[in-house]
Design a protein that fits this description.
This protein is mainly beta and 154 residues long. The chain is built from three helices and eight strands; from the N terminus they run ββαβαββαβββ.
Length: 154
């Protein structure tokens, strides 16, 4: 049994709430999600601590080092699309996932970690999405098995 290493992990996903996903890439087992138009506002925080710590950043890249399974089907990330009460599960290879996420122009809403290593990211596609009309303004849940998660703030 393997476990996600929490020793140096600091949860910074909350600072990305409502931020726009501007680019996605996958290379050497690392999925990179770039939030390149990062802006926060003082009135969104009840105390100044978080605002002061993150106010000068303009970009955050979340690097997710995926776990390699011996079963190729387990290696593939899954994406669930929710629209109203309807949902659709899609399992994609890495290149298809990158292309799909790039086209969403999605806003990040929430992240959770379950079973020690399964990372779930929730995103809302925007009206500016390049996707077909039926895929716009939907909620998406991306599930990836992660060995490590890093936040790179610029």
């Amino acid at each position: 049994m393997r476990h996600f290493d929490y020793n140096d992990f600091v949860v910074q996903f909350s600072m990305l709430h409502d931020q726009l996903l501007t680019d996605v890439s996958f290379d050497s087992g690392v999925l990179r999600l770039v939030f390149g138009e990062y802006r926060i506002f003082r009135e969104d925080y009840s105390e100044d601590t978080y605002f002061e710590r993150y106010k000068d950043y303009r970009e955050c890249t979340v690097e997710i080092r995926k776990h390699d399974f011996s079963d190729p089907d387990m290696d593939r990330p899954t994406l669930c699309m929710l629209r109203g009460e309807r949902f659709k599960w899609m399992q994609m290879d890495d290149d298809a996932l990158v292309d799909f996420l790039r086209s969403l122009r999605a806003q990040f809403t929430f992240a959770s970690i379950a079973n020690n290593d399964e990372l779930e990211l929730q995103l809302l596609s925007s009206a500016e999405s390049e996707m077909k009309r039926k895929y716009r303004c939907c909620e998406y849940r991306l599930c990836v098995y992660a060995d490590a998660i890093n936040f790179i703030w610029k």
